[in-house]
Amino acid sequence: MEAATDKSDAYDKQSSGDDCWSYLPNFRVKTCTFGEADSATNVVVVGNSHAGQWLPALQRLAGQNDFKVSTLLASQCALSEVRQNFDTDAKSRACLRWVEKVTTRVIAMKPDLVVMTNRISTAAEGESLQDSYPAYGDGYRAVLERWKQAGIKVLVLHDTPAPGFQIPDCIATEGSRYSNCDGDRKTWVKPEPVEGVVKALADPDIRFVDLNDNICEAKTCQAVTGGVITYFDGSHLTATYAATLAPYLGVPLLEMLGRSSG
Fold first, then answer.
1. What letter would DSSP give residue 230?
2. Among 31, 73, 30, 77, CA closest to 53
3. Beta strand 42-47 with 68-74: parallel, antiparallel or unpaired?
4. In this structure, how many other beta carbons lie within 10 angstroms of the beta carbon of residue 169?
5. Which class for 219: exposed (0-12), middle (13-18), buried (19 or more C-beta within 10 A)?
6. What is the pLDDT at residue 261?
7. pTM of the complete model beyond 0.90
8. Residue 42 and residue 70 in contact, taking contact as beta carbons nearer than 8 Å
9. Backbone phi, then psi, for 29, in 5-degree steps?
């Protein structure tokens, strides 16, 4: 099914011959640039794969509003200053080093805006996944406080709903009855510890936005939205669907850039 390969350009090979993701076991820091490469306005998207899934929407906005998009993305490792429990200590330490390096890199880049979001899929060290949210919240605070001190503007997005099963496979099985692949919003939307952190920081240049009302209905999240398959796997938005969210992302993003959303 085409939906299974409908992924953002962060997955494609760049001029370096590599894609835009930092991977286990070393989490080498990688940067890619999209949008209007010669623009003086730079929007940096940071986090793990649930940040990278927003790239199609950001590219659309970049083309419409003359800015470039830089990426600092990792596979699985969330951008939170917390030891994440990978299967070896070396991998956990590598993830934490990546967080430190990216936090520092953003300060050095002095972007006009950072867009940050993450999926929490790995337990914090010494915790179950379900009990890890406070530790991740503390880790987010550590990152955001450093950016606050550096005067970095940050748009923090609520993580997107995660079905937890392969949506393309379900649709292939159900055919025209694809609504059988829909799910309960309360189940698909996970807790978001960074929300309270942003509220506590009380900084107008660090803003939290929940766009999930533009992805789900009041009680249901859909496998197919407006004729477009919503997910390419069990948690990631298809590039085609993500691009349709550009107008909703654009409102807070352009406000933080000091531009009219028209």
1. -
2. 73
3. parallel
4. 15
5. exposed
6. 57
7. yes
8. yes
9. -70, 130
Question: Facing residues of 44 across strands?
Answer: 70, 114
Q: Cα separation of 149 and 215, whole Å? A: 33
What type of residue sits at position 169? Answer: D
pLDDT digits (tens, 9 = 90+) for 6-19: 999 999 989 888 99
- 8 Å CB contact between 93 and 108: no
For 163-194, the DSSP string reads -SS-HHHHHHHHGGGGGGG-EEHHHHSPP-TH
Tokens matching residue 191: 């807790």
Cis peptide before 25 (omega within 30 of 0): yes
Cα torsion 98, 250, 183, 237 to 10°: value is -50
Show the beta-strand stretches assigned E in the chain.
21-22, 32-35, 42-47, 68-74, 113-117, 154-157, 183-184, 206-209, 220-221, 224-225, 228-229
